[in-house]
């Protein structure tokens, strides 16, 4: 659904009727700002207003949705239903986008206010910044990673992973400097973060590649988590002289393998069901022909 084309069409028809945006809005019991947004393609009329908008502009709903006048009628009720469904989808997506934008702004303001509060309280109590930089840096890092997802939903996952990949090491370095840990945080955090980032990119690629088989992607992700956990344990064991694997690790690995197996079985069952459902019409068609 091309909202900009539809908006231009509404503006043209309104002007042809010698109506201002306020006149048009008054007839629909809405604000002229809403009409302005329609005509600029920022938003579109509510689906319940389509009959009234079409009637006032002297066009059909089909023409209104297509954003142009037509000398031919739509191809039966099916075409009207398809246009209505497309319009409802675009309207729902626009509403979801607005909600995501508001959540992203609220999240940003909350972190900004929290950072300011930490700085003010720390300065008021200690006379200088002592502990405040830790939460401020952490919140800044959280904003960089989570903002793309809050703003764009699933489409923001790539941006979030990219931000995590780029800023995780600088974040650990700054944290190490603030804590004056002599490089211990960076020594332990860098390889652990690198392995985690590789794992997350792999999971992202799996779900991107297996769009129609999410159970299989989830099963593969769980299997991939096993060597990732073992490698992280190996890194930490060398730094802090810990066992590479203990009872809890074995239990976690067992649960991961069981879950992966269950998802594999569910994927195979769903695939088999899909194949059977595709064959049924063929068999019924061949019997009818006979």
UniProtKB/TrEMBL annotation:
It comes from the Bacteria. The chain crosses the membrane at residues 104-125, 131-150, 157-179, 185-207, 219-241, 247-270. Keywords: DNA-binding, Membrane, Transmembrane, Transmembrane helix. One of its GO terms (molecular function) is DNA binding. The keyword Transport does not apply. InterPro entries: Cro/C1-type_HTH (IPR001387), Lambda_DNA-bd_dom_sf (IPR010982). Residues 10-64 form the HTH cro/C1-type domain. The keyword DNA-binding applies. This is HTH cro/C1-type domain-containing protein. It comes from Ruthenibacterium lactatiformans. The lineage of its organism: Bacteria, Bacillati, Bacillota, Clostridia, Eubacteriales.
């Amino acid at each position: 659904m091309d909202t900009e084309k539809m908006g231009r069409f509404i503006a043209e028809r309104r002007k042809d009727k010698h109506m201002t945006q306020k006149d048009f809005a008054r007839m629909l019991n809405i604000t002229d700002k809403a009409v302005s947004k329609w005509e600029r393609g920022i938003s579109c009329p509510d689906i319940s207003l389509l009959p009234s908008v079409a009637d006032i502009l002297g066009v059909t709903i089909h023409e209104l949705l297509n954003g142009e006048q037509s000398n031919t009628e739509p191809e039966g009720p099916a075409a009207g239903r398809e246009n209505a469904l497309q319009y409802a989808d675009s309207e729902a997506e626009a509403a979801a986008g607005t909600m995501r934008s508001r959540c992203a702004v609220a999240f940003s303001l909350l972190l900004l206010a929290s950072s300011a509060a930490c700085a003010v309280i720390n300065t008021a109590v200690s006379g200088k910044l002592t502990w405040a930089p830790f939460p401020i840096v952490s919140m800044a890092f959280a904003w960089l990673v989570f903002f793309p997802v809050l703003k764009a939903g699933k489409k923001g996952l790539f941006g979030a992973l990219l931000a995590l990949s780029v800023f995780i090491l600088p974040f650990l370095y700054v944290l190490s400097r603030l804590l004056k840990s002599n490089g211990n945080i960076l020594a332990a955090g860098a390889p652990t973060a690198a392995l985690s980032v590789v794992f997350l990119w792999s999971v992202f690629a799996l779900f991107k590649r297996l769009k129609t088989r999410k159970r299989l992607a989830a099963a593969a992700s769980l299997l991939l988590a096993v060597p990732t956990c073992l490698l992280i344990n190996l890194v930490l064991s060398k730094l802090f002289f810990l066992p590479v694997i203990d009872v809890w690790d074995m239990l976690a690995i067992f649960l991961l393998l069981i879950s992966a197996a269950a998802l594999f079985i569910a994927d195979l069952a769903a695939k088999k069901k899909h194949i059977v459902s595709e064959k049924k019409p063929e068999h019924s068609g061949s019997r009818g022909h006979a």
